[in-house]
Amino acid sequence: MGHKLSKDNMKKGIYILPNLFTTAALFFGFFSIISSHKGDFVWAAKAIVISAIFDTLDGKVARLTGTTSRFGVEYDSLADLISFGVAPAFLAYTWALIPFGKYGWLAAFLYLTCAALRLARFNVQVETVEKTKFKGVPSPAAAGMIAITVLLSYYLGGIGDTKHMTILLMIYLLAFLMVSNVTYRSFKELELSNRKPFGLLVVAVLLLILIVAEPQVVLFMIGIVYLASGPVELMLNLSRRKKRDRSHLKNKTRDIES
Predict the structure, then answer these.
(1) Domain for residue 217, yes or no?
(2) CATH code, domain carrying 22
(3) Contact, 27 vs 79, CB < 8 A?
(4) Which of the four, 29, 79, 80, 256, has the lowest number of CB atoms within 10 Å?
(5) Helix (H), strand (E) at residue 126
């Protein structure tokens, strides 16, 4: 029945607009791979960032225009695997991991595998998980962190051989965070079309000015804060839970003694 329904839906056609944005994201992901192969690592990193922007827009456009579909979800996932799995793994390997030999490309492969697992888990749990949170760091955020690290390195005039160990450690950390159960906010609850406090507009304008003034530095700091937000929120929740348990235990002890 489900297979027949899927075929019937395909006969009706697909939504062009959101899938064009997905195709643009896929294009820049592929362009990043080509640029890495040519040794143009700055453009390879920029292409991943641009791809992440289009990836965000395709979902927004689909929701705003009411053109979400199962085809779009599957296409987006396949495009994400190229743009935020293969492209950043290849960039990391060609830019910094070649000196590690087989351990370098195995680290890149680990990142790619974890990105694929992260996307597969998201597709399976998309109807059951909380809409405002992601389980594991999103693959676009992980890929963006690799890309912006490359851009920051060139902006600072290069970091020499330090980049090799930095990227290796980052690859392992990002791979772990993608498949972990650490939750990250999706910010889908921020409906910008609704009324918001005036102060939020001021903060947004200031942030935009900072990004335009020093994009590499500001985006890198935003990436670090976002990556840290998941583990920090987890530790805070555990701390609150322990305090509640201790408080509950004290109250229960008092009730027994009285």
Answers:
(1) no
(2) 1.20.120.1760
(3) no
(4) 256
(5) none
